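re: ur question from yesterday

yeah so i grabbed the chain u mentioned. its 328 aa long if i counted rite. heres the sequnce exactly as i have it in my notes:
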Amino acid sequence: MAYTCSLSSLLLSPVPNITLLPSSFSSSSLPFPRRSLLSVMKFRAFASASAPSSCPTPDVVVTREQGKNAKLIDALAKLNIHCLEVPLVKHTQGPDLNKLSSLLKDVIFDWIVITSPEAGLVFLEAWNYKCLMLDLVLIYLVRAARCPKVRIGVVGAGTASVFHEILLSREKTLEIAFSPSKATGKVLAAELPNDGDSTCKVLYPASVKAGNEIEEGLTDRGFKVTRLNTYSTEPVQEVDHAVLKQALSAPVLAVASPSAIRAWINLVPKSESWDKSVACIGQTTALAAKKLGLKNVYYPDNPGLDGWVESILEALRMHEKVEKALTC
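ran it thru and got these structure tokens back, copy pasting raw so excuse formatting
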């Protein structure tokens, strides 16, 4: 049986301070409802701020931002693997966020390149705002002219998933037109189609902390790339002591970014000799873990949910094997 520390189990515990949305992206500051965007994510309040004693020892600690771990938790629950949600990162507004909507209104791009779910959500907020403005201006024109159709290039299935509901519920103004053969920025930059003889314009909304391999790779191939740093990923500075104690006991830590790795290293007490396994979503995060001195690092060849789950299972199998050897 798979166990979860659900919202109902938290009702008898001190009320946790859980922020489901970054304050910088408050729906009250937007000219349109955000509910349709948020419904692509299944928010749940696991024991990230309080750990009731009734919850069993976790098998895996999941560490994405609060509310964005549901797909991984569900996939592992089907395998009877118990998760503890301990968000290690939070997203904040980037310096170029306010430029995004105006740029979308003023410039027609051949491609929008999206390399993370958060970048996708930020883009969709700006895109909805653009469509609203066009509705006001073009109210007497035909409906199909409201928003020009734009091609989206995504790095992988996880990033594409944030667009699925929008593509089903709105006019076909956006099109997921490209995904690389391997879900990495380097491969995306090498494979993105360059149509025609004229310069191909690419908009790349990104994290402040993202590397330069995408814009450099595309520029080298003749694309004209506009990068906007629309958000940033910041480490969580503090975790409830009881939750951290439970997390430290879990055999596997599941991480999806170098920022999460750095946050974990900073949270582990100096007196703690932590040597458990780290299951990374992809190679970039795994390399960051190894550079920080972590030894039991697992990652899939092709980033994504399925490969991540396999890496977690591999780490758990190795843990079980070691435990059996020690008890013999």
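noticed a couple things. The CA atoms of residues 40 and 162 lie 6 Å apart. also DSSP finds twelve helices and eleven strands in the chain.
anyway ttyl
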